[in-house]
Amino acid sequence: MSWLSWRPWSRSTTKPVDDAEFSFEQPEDGHRRHLLQALSAMVGGSALAALSPPAQARDASELPPPRRALTGRDDAGKSVFKSFDVTSKVVEIDANPGLTFYELYMTEGVPRLTGQEPDPMLNGTRDFPGPGGTLFRLISYPPKRPDGWKPPPGVTLESGLRELSEKVPGMGNHFDRSAPGMHTTDTIDYGVVVRGEMTLELDDGQKVHLRQGDCIVQNGTRHRWRNPLPEPCLMAFVSVGGRRG
């Protein structure tokens, strides 16, 4: 569900996103932004509007980290907010500056829903849930790298995957060494572009260009993500563990 590609992307050698098959026809960005903010207000929430980026944003460090409202129950059984802050588990990947995981919540098996459960992220995170489990995360992807960009000194594909697996246990094991960025997981992933734009590529080279508000359902298939813009992209994912047929 994540990325890893060390190859610079050149406009002269890469098929333009707008020419990719299955590209979506979308309203103009300004109209989309106004529509999304209006819908956010209509449902009584301001989270999406609060996450809308300044137009000049070029780096994830310029954007406020997303906050998570975690609910539960008090001793009397009434619903309460247990916290409303940045999640306790934020993972930054040094090998790919700007790549940040906001690990929001996870369950294994059938949740009991007592409301007394401790925050599971206090005990760390993992790559993906087992069968029947769930994992909710936000991922901030770095901007498209300029021509000639190189990873930090000493970083290789293997060292980058190793760091990924150390910080999000097991994550690097899902990536295909022969096709950097391609990976497969035993999950159904529900994803939505919260901010920015993203390109999703599958085995046969076909791509879709996702804009803010677009959604995907990833059915355990091999894929890769690439940010086509010179600004970060924030995506939300809910992964549900499954079994290969």
What is this entry, summarized?
This protein has 245 residues and is of the alpha+beta class.
Q: What features would you describe in this structure?
A:
- The chain is of the alpha+beta class.
- It has one domain (17-241): Sandwich (Jelly Rolls), CATH 2.60.120.
- It is built from 3 helices and 11 strands; from the N terminus they run H-H-E-E-E-E-E-H-E-E-E-E-E-E.
- It has helices at 29-42, 47-51, 157-167; strands at 68-73, 79-85, 89-92, 100-107, 134-141, 187-195, 198-202, 207-210, 215-219, 223-226, 233-241.
- The strands form 3 sheets. Strands 3-4-5-11-6-9 form a 6-stranded antiparallel sheet, with no helix packed on it. A 3-stranded antiparallel sheet has the order 8-7-10, with no helix packed on it. A two-stranded antiparallel ribbon has the order 1-2.
- The longest helix has 14 residues, at 29-42.
- Residues 1-28 and 34-58 have low confidence and may be disordered.
